[in-house]
Each structure stands twice: as C-alpha cells, then as structure tokens.
Amino acid sequence: MTQQQSDVALIGLAVMGQNLVLNMNDHDYAVSVYNRTASVTDAFLAGPAKDTRIRGFHDLKDMVASLQKPRRIVILVQAGPAVDAVIEQVLPLVEADDIIVDLGNTHYPDTQRRWAALREKGIRFIGSGVSGGEEGARYGPSIMPGGDPDAWPFIKDIFQSISAKADGEPCCDWVGEGGAGHYVKMVHNGIEYGDMQLICEAYQLLHEGLGLSYDDLHEVFSQWNEGELDSYLIEITRDIMAYREEDGSVLVDKILDTAGQKGTGKWTGISALDLGMPVTLIGEAVFARCVSALKDERIAASNILSGPDSTISGVDQQAFIDDVRQALYASKIISYAQGYMLLREAAKEYGWNLNYGGIALMWRGGCIIRSVFLGKIKEAFEKNPELDNLLLDGFFKEAIENCQASWRRVVAKGVEVGIPMPAFTTALAFFDSYRRERLPANLLQAQRDYFGAHTYERVDAARGEFFHTNWTGRGGDVSSRTYNV
Q1: Most Cβ neighbours (<10 Å): which of 124, 141, 191, 368?
Q2: Does the predicted TM-score (pTM) go above 0.90?
C-alpha cells in the first residue's frame, strides 16, 4: 500500500458522515471523502478535518482511484432513492469484490434488494444500521452490519474500532445476510419509540397527575438513573427537566406537544403485523405520536369533550413515585420481550441466524436505547440461546412479579383520573394475555365460523383438525378454506 492510498472512502458529509470520518481518522484510518456539493467537502477539509489524513475529492472517479483494493466505499446519504442514485454513480468505477456499505437509516427491504442486485454484479454489499446520533458517530456508535458475509472481514476492523465499547467489547458484530443489519436497527428504533413513550407517560403521571415540579422531576429521574432504569434516555430526561432558558423558565414546558417521526417505528409495526407478532407497545408508541400530531383537533375537542379531574389524590406521594418507577420498568421489559419476539420471527421468515445475546451487547453502548438493562438480556440468551420469550427467563420473570402490584396500581389510578397511558396499559394487557392458558378467542372463532364458515379447532381434537358448524340450520355444511395471513 502506498501512502497515497486510503483505507476507506465515505460519500455524504452531513453531520453523521463528518463525525464518522473524524472517528475513523482518530483510529488511524486514512479516509477519502466526497460530497455532492463540493463546497461542503472544502469546508470540512478547511475546518474539522484540517491537519488530518482525511482527503477530499470533487470527482467520484478520483476518490475511487485513491483507495486500496478491495475498495471500501461507505455511503451515508438520505435513505431511499438517493442511495440508489449514488450506487449507480459508483458502479462503473468499481470492480468485482469491491465493497459498498450503506450506513443510512434504510428500510430493510431496500437493503435486501440492493444486496441481491449487487451480488449478481460481483460487488459485495453491506447494509448497516448505526445508532447514537451525532455524539455516537464521533466517539463511538452502535453498529449493526448485515449483507454479504464475505465482505465482513474487510470492514470488521474499521467498524469495531470506531464503535462504542461495553465492558471492553465492541458494540458491533456481524448480524446476518441481506437486510438483517437494517432490520435489527429498525427494531432498535421501534424499541426506542416505546422507551420514549413510556418515559413520557411517567412524566405526565408525575407532573400533571401528582403535581411534581420540574425540579422535583429532575431529582426523580436522577434517582431512577442510579438503579435498574439506568439508561441514556432516562439520563437525558433528567437533564431536560433541569434545563432553563435565560429568563429562568423551563424550556420543555414551552415545546409544542406534537411529535415527529421518520418512519422506523411505523416500519416495525408494519413488519410485526406482516409476521403476526403482537408488538403492541411499539404500535401504541407510534399511534401516540400520531395522536399528538392532531393538535388543532385536540384543542377543539378539549373544549367539547370532558373527563375526570386529572389530579391524583389520596395516595402517598413517595410511594406512588416508586409505583411509577416499577410500572415503567415492567413495561420496558414487555417492550423488549416483544421486540425480541419480532426478531425471532423475522429470523425464521428470512433465514437469518441472529445472535440475540450479541444484539443486546451491540445495544449496550453507543446507541439511543443503551442501558444496563441490556446486560441482563445478553445473560438471558447466553443461558438459553433458544429462549422463546424474555418473560420466561428467571431474572425477568422475577422482575415482572416484583413490579406487578405497583404496575396495576399505576394503570388503575391513571385510568381513574383520565391520564392517557397507551404504552403502560397495552404492556399490562399483553402480560395478562400472554400469561393466560385460555383467552376468549374461542368465541371469536365461533363468530368467524358463524358468519363466514371459517372453521375452528376443538380442545377435544388434535391440533390441525378443523370443524364447521351449521349454526342457524340454514347455512349448509360447506366451509371456507382455512388459512392465516
């Protein structure tokens, strides 16, 4: 290798791209960079990248020529058509066995498609999820690579060097073929939606319901961050509660209550529906954002529709705060249990060999959902790699049982005073459904058979044997074909 050859190239110098390049440079990798707008490249080289080994190019051909073989080209542009456009520009410039990496927030079916198409051309493709935001990109993100396994050895050292570390281990490892990496990142983001919604519900219960001040809330979240809820999202919530504007007023109180979203939570919910997995908490978290976006309608409705006074009274304040903590912890367990149910079903559907404990390790550091909690998930799958559900692991079973009474008190009190808790309540409903041997779906099947001759199975017959009843005496004995979508 000559001094002029770079180890890796990166296309796309927005915030994440610039910080990842600087991270690579810190770890002694020579990086070539390109941005569609040349002035961005020039400003980067004159600013943050000054006096580094980073080299900028205004021409893609020159950038590709600057790389050692096999060439490693990282794309970090807006997910969607922009990625395809860059790949089309790069393809005439690369050779067989060169490696193209998409580090964007891509929907996994797009990664599957690109992986298959590039494989036919002899180009090795990696689609990798990255989490951690601007700070993570600069100092150590969580990286979830998938795609062509033959490409992994050539990118492994770079990715594991720049990733976050948890107990000395890199928060980056191979996930699986095709779109597996971006799928795992999608589920990560879905869980992130759930965690954020749960924290928001705890905040509303304590602030609006119990009447805690923002100084009180800062103290509560500080204490929670010292225990089993220790996590990045609790940490930043603590800081948000303490943030004041120049006039001393609370900033979060002035922020409009309409939440944005970029689609990954929705993608998770759609995939869960497609695969028949009851990922109810993430679904409710997505819908909560949708309801928040109906601001004008909610303002109008607030002047027409009435409900109970949302003040929580008749409780010991400190005891209720602790109940909310335990309800949050129990609901968080449900969210991760559901997320892992979805990962397991996706692995079956797409033929991926996912390392569930390894995924928990990748999420231990650098990413938005990083928390001490994830270490327990890693331990659960190390003890039993075939674990069907986290709730069946001894640690999580005991944790749920210890939190259950508090969880029920919080949900009951919140319903009583009319504070919306879609995530808390759906988590408890899922738990109560999952732990029951018998559900009222027997009636549902009877209804389906009554109006549509959809058939049913019987408890006194073998599974897979279907029956139809002529409920009215007028329907006949012909039944519909039995299938599940």
Answers
A1: 141
A2: yes
